[in-house]
Amino acid sequence: MYKTLFDKIWDSHIVKKQVDCPDAIYIDTHFIHEVTSPQAFDGLRKRGLPVFRTQNTRATADHNVPTKDQHLPIKDAISKFQVDKLTQNTAEFGIELFGLGHQNQGIVHVIGPELGITLPGMTIVCGDSHTSTHGAFGTVAFGIGTSEVEMVLATQCVLQYKPKTMKIEINGKLANGVLSKDIVLYVIAQISAAGGTGYFIEFCGSAITDLSMEARMTICNMSIEMGARGGLIAPDDKTYTYIKGREYAPKGEKWEAAMAYWKTLYSDKDAIFDKTYTFDAANIAPMITYGTNPGMGIGVADAIPTENEVTPSELVSFKKSLEYMGLQPGQSMLGKKIDYVFIGSCTNSRIEDLRLVANFVKGKQKAKNVEVWIVPGSKKVEKQAKAEGIDQILASAGMELREPGCSACLGMNEDKVPAGKYSVSTSNRNFEGRQGPGARTFLVSPLTAALAAITGSVEDVRSYKM
Question: Going from the N-terminus, what domains does the chain have, and what CATH number goes with each?
Answer without folding.
Answer: 5-160+237-260 (3.30.499.10), 164-235+266-283 (3.40.1060.10), 299-461 (3.30.499.10)
